[in-house]
Amino acid sequence: MMEGANPTDNPQSSSDETPVELEELRDEDASIEIDFEQEFQSDEISESADAEDADAATADAAMPGPAGPPAEDNSAAIASFQQQIANLQAQVEDRTGQYMRLSADFENFRKRSSKEKEDLEAQVKCNTIGALLEVIDNFERARSQIKPQTEAEMTIHKSYQSVYKQLVEGLKRLGVAPMRAEGQEFDPNLHEAVMREPTDKYEEGIVIDEFVRGYLLGERVLRHAMVKVAAPPEPSAASDAAAPGEDAY
Questions:
Q1: Among 174, 169, 182, which Cα is nearest to 212's?
Q2: Which of 75, 182, 225, 229 would staple 214 via disulfide (CB 3.0–4.6 Å)?
Q3: CA 190 to CA 221: how far, in whole Å?
Q4: Coil vs helix vs strand at 108
Q5: Residue 147, number of CB atoms within 10 A of its CB
Q6: CA distances to 30, 64, 65 from 53, in Å
Q7: Cβ of 230: how many Cβ atoms within 10 Å?
């Protein structure tokens, strides 16, 4: 069959060639061998493999897991762990108690040491200031007894009085304060009674005179004041002796 030929122009030629083409197609189809049995076998193999996979999955799902330890072993292990936990908790509580006791002991030691330090400092201060109080006493005696007559004596008097004033100001800065005992009620914690005087001008137990001044350092007594205390008046001899002739009445 030629390209570009018009079948209408040569109808005889077209009818002649048609049987030949059909014959050739039949020969080609006959030469092709189709193995239907092999196709069927491959399909069966595929289906069999799928079935085996499904059976294996089902068997794996149905198969029990690895056997665990017996229940008694689990109970024993749990009991052992619980005992270990209890022991550890006991140790923690014991260590906590030890820490609390040590902390309390240390706090008590710190307070005690601080108190002892303060007491020692106060004692040293009291001893030092107590030694200076005698100097103060001498200055006060000199001021009360010495009466300057001349200008030179007055100059000397003013000079040592200025030293006395400076010393008193220094003691005040340290917290030293003099007692004012005269006219106050006698207090054995502050006063030392060296004399009692019967009098009706003061009530009994009132300090009527101060011989040596006392001093305080804060609330601590540096030196007790030496004082004279009022006592009740004694009855007179005239009132004790009865007048003559009184018994006759």
A1: 182
A2: 225
A3: 7
A4: helix
A5: 7
A6: 41, 19, 20
A7: 20
